[in-house]
Amino acid sequence: MMKMVKELVYWWMCLGVLCCVVIDGTVVTDCGSVARVDRVDIEGCIIPPCVVTRPDIQDVNITFTPDYQVESFSSVLDAYFGDAHYPWPGPGGCDLLTEGGSCPLLAGHTYHFHSIMPVLSIYPELSVVVTWFLEDENNKPLVCIRFPVIIL
Ligand SMILES: *[C@@H]1O[C@H](CO)[C@@H](O)[C@H](O)[C@H]1NC(C)=O
Protein backbone atom coordinates (compact mmCIF):
# COMPACT_ATOMS: atom_id res chain seq x y z
CA MET A 1 0.00 0.00 0.00
CA MET A 2 2.74 2.41 1.04
CA LYS A 3 4.62 1.55 -2.13
CA MET A 4 1.61 2.38 -4.24
CA VAL A 5 1.18 5.71 -2.54
CA LYS A 6 4.83 6.47 -3.12
CA GLU A 7 4.49 5.58 -6.78
CA LEU A 8 1.43 7.76 -7.10
CA VAL A 9 3.26 10.67 -5.50
CA TYR A 10 6.18 10.03 -7.82
CA TRP A 11 4.02 10.11 -10.95
CA TRP A 12 2.17 13.10 -9.68
CA MET A 13 5.50 14.90 -9.28
CA CYS A 14 6.56 13.91 -12.79
CA LEU A 15 3.32 15.28 -14.17
CA GLY A 16 3.89 18.47 -12.22
CA VAL A 17 7.33 18.92 -13.76
CA LEU A 18 5.96 18.15 -17.21
CA CYS A 19 3.20 20.68 -16.81
CA CYS A 20 5.62 23.46 -15.84
CA VAL A 21 8.03 22.69 -18.63
CA VAL A 22 5.12 22.79 -21.07
CA ILE A 23 3.93 26.15 -19.83
CA ASP A 24 7.44 27.48 -20.36
CA GLY A 25 7.58 26.97 -24.14
CA THR A 26 9.12 24.23 -26.25
CA VAL A 27 11.14 21.52 -24.52
CA VAL A 28 14.60 21.48 -26.10
CA THR A 29 17.99 20.06 -25.15
CA ASP A 30 20.65 22.55 -24.17
CA CYS A 31 23.92 21.62 -25.89
CA GLY A 32 26.29 23.97 -24.09
CA SER A 33 24.83 27.48 -24.14
CA VAL A 34 27.12 29.97 -22.42
CA ALA A 35 24.25 32.47 -22.05
CA ARG A 36 21.20 31.70 -19.94
CA VAL A 37 18.43 30.39 -22.19
CA ASP A 38 15.21 31.69 -20.66
CA ARG A 39 12.72 30.34 -23.12
CA VAL A 40 12.39 28.72 -26.52
CA ASP A 41 9.20 28.76 -28.59
CA ILE A 42 8.99 26.72 -31.75
CA GLU A 43 5.73 27.27 -33.55
CA GLY A 44 3.20 24.50 -33.01
CA CYS A 45 5.64 22.37 -31.05
CA ILE A 46 5.66 21.91 -27.29
CA ILE A 47 7.23 18.51 -26.88
CA PRO A 48 9.43 17.58 -29.86
CA PRO A 49 9.71 15.94 -32.29
CA CYS A 50 8.28 18.92 -34.12
CA VAL A 51 6.36 17.71 -37.15
CA VAL A 52 6.67 19.87 -40.25
CA THR A 53 5.63 19.45 -43.86
CA ARG A 54 7.82 20.62 -46.74
CA PRO A 55 8.18 23.29 -47.87
CA ASP A 56 7.37 25.30 -44.84
CA ILE A 57 8.74 27.84 -42.47
CA GLN A 58 8.46 27.68 -38.74
CA ASP A 59 8.69 30.45 -36.24
CA VAL A 60 11.47 30.04 -33.72
CA ASN A 61 11.76 32.41 -30.77
CA ILE A 62 14.64 32.29 -28.32
CA THR A 63 14.85 34.42 -25.20
CA PHE A 64 18.32 34.54 -23.69
CA THR A 65 20.50 36.50 -21.29
CA PRO A 66 24.27 36.76 -21.85
CA ASP A 67 26.51 37.32 -18.83
CA TYR A 68 29.12 39.30 -20.78
CA GLN A 69 28.99 41.97 -23.47
CA VAL A 70 28.54 40.57 -26.96
CA GLU A 71 29.48 42.74 -29.96
CA SER A 72 27.50 40.69 -32.45
CA PHE A 73 26.12 37.22 -33.03
CA SER A 74 24.74 35.09 -35.82
CA SER A 75 22.66 31.95 -36.27
CA VAL A 76 24.16 28.67 -37.33
CA LEU A 77 21.93 25.71 -38.02
CA ASP A 78 22.94 22.12 -38.33
CA ALA A 79 20.88 19.15 -39.38
CA TYR A 80 21.78 15.53 -38.95
CA PHE A 81 19.78 12.98 -40.89
CA GLY A 82 21.10 9.83 -39.25
CA ASP A 83 24.83 10.05 -40.01
CA ALA A 84 24.40 12.41 -42.95
CA HIS A 85 24.97 16.05 -42.31
CA TYR A 86 23.15 18.79 -44.21
CA PRO A 87 23.74 22.51 -44.06
CA TRP A 88 20.64 24.44 -43.11
CA PRO A 89 20.39 28.10 -44.10
CA GLY A 90 21.08 30.08 -40.98
CA PRO A 91 18.81 33.07 -40.68
CA GLY A 92 20.39 36.22 -39.27
CA GLY A 93 21.59 37.50 -35.94
CA CYS A 94 21.48 40.97 -34.38
CA ASP A 95 18.98 42.07 -37.05
CA LEU A 96 16.43 39.58 -35.74
CA LEU A 97 16.26 40.89 -32.18
CA THR A 98 12.75 42.02 -31.26
CA GLU A 99 11.33 44.24 -28.54
CA GLY A 100 13.90 46.96 -29.17
CA GLY A 101 16.97 44.79 -28.61
CA SER A 102 20.16 45.58 -30.56
CA CYS A 103 23.85 44.76 -30.65
CA PRO A 104 26.09 45.06 -28.72
CA LEU A 105 24.31 42.88 -26.19
CA LEU A 106 24.82 43.99 -22.63
CA ALA A 107 25.73 41.60 -19.83
CA GLY A 108 22.75 40.57 -17.75
CA HIS A 109 20.14 41.94 -20.17
CA THR A 110 17.47 39.69 -21.62
CA TYR A 111 17.03 39.57 -25.40
CA HIS A 112 14.31 38.21 -27.66
CA PHE A 113 15.37 36.64 -30.92
CA HIS A 114 12.72 35.88 -33.54
CA SER A 115 13.61 33.88 -36.59
CA ILE A 116 12.18 31.36 -38.98
CA MET A 117 13.37 27.87 -39.72
CA PRO A 118 12.98 27.15 -43.41
CA VAL A 119 12.10 23.56 -44.24
CA LEU A 120 13.10 23.16 -47.87
CA SER A 121 11.46 20.77 -50.29
CA ILE A 122 14.87 19.22 -51.11
CA TYR A 123 15.07 17.80 -47.60
CA PRO A 124 14.35 14.11 -47.39
CA GLU A 125 11.26 12.82 -45.67
CA LEU A 126 12.97 11.78 -42.49
CA SER A 127 13.62 12.42 -38.88
CA VAL A 128 16.31 14.97 -38.30
CA VAL A 129 17.99 16.45 -35.28
CA VAL A 130 18.37 20.20 -35.59
CA THR A 131 21.01 22.09 -33.65
CA TRP A 132 20.52 25.82 -33.51
CA PHE A 133 23.44 27.98 -32.39
CA LEU A 134 23.57 31.69 -31.71
CA GLU A 135 27.31 32.28 -31.94
CA ASP A 136 29.03 35.39 -30.67
CA GLU A 137 31.75 37.24 -32.58
CA ASN A 138 34.33 34.72 -31.32
CA ASN A 139 32.21 31.74 -32.40
CA LYS A 140 31.30 30.92 -28.81
CA PRO A 141 27.82 29.41 -28.46
CA LEU A 142 25.71 31.96 -26.62
CA VAL A 143 22.86 29.58 -27.29
CA CYS A 144 23.03 25.96 -28.38
CA ILE A 145 19.72 24.13 -28.49
CA ARG A 146 18.88 20.82 -30.07
CA PHE A 147 15.53 19.31 -30.99
CA PRO A 148 14.24 16.51 -33.20
CA VAL A 149 12.08 17.31 -36.21
CA ILE A 150 10.04 14.95 -38.34
CA ILE A 151 9.81 16.12 -41.93
CA LEU A 152 6.78 14.92 -43.88
C1 LIG B 1 7.64 34.78 -31.90
O1 LIG B 1 7.78 36.16 -31.67
C2 LIG B 1 7.04 36.96 -32.58
C3 LIG B 1 7.41 38.42 -32.35
O2 LIG B 1 7.56 38.71 -31.00
C4 LIG B 1 5.56 36.66 -32.40
O3 LIG B 1 4.81 37.43 -33.30
C5 LIG B 1 5.33 35.17 -32.67
O4 LIG B 1 3.98 34.84 -32.45
C6 LIG B 1 6.22 34.32 -31.78
N1 LIG B 1 6.09 32.92 -32.17
C7 LIG B 1 6.06 31.90 -31.29
C8 LIG B 1 5.97 30.54 -31.84
O5 LIG B 1 6.12 32.09 -30.08
TrEMBL record:
Question: Its family?
Answer: Belongs to the NPC2 family.
**Which residues are the signal sequence here?**
1-19
Give its localization.
Secreted
Q: Where does the MD-2-related lipid-recognition domain lie? A: 28-149
Q: Name one GO biological process term.
A: sterol transport
Mind listing the GO molecular function terms for this protein?
Answer: sterol binding
> Which keywords fit this entry according to its UniProt record?
Secreted, Signal
List the InterPro entries: Ig_E-set (IPR014756), ML_dom (IPR003172), NPC2-like (IPR039670)
User: Taxonomic classification, please?
Assistant: Eukaryota, Metazoa, Ecdysozoa, Arthropoda, Crustacea
Quick one: a GO cellular component term? extracellular region
Q: What is this protein called?
A: MD-2-related lipid-recognition domain-containing protein
